[in-house]
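Contributing new records

If you add data, match the layout below exactly. Sequence lines come first and carry their own label; structure lines follow with theirs. Keep one chain per record. Anything else will be rejected by the validation script.
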Amino acid sequence: GENMEWVTLKFSYPNASGDDWIGVFSPSNF
């Protein structure tokens, strides 16, 4: 599901902070 994709992205880029993810992946995209 979408949550698993999010987790995969988080593990793929462990150095990215939550704010970075919000900037790159807008909540509207999910």
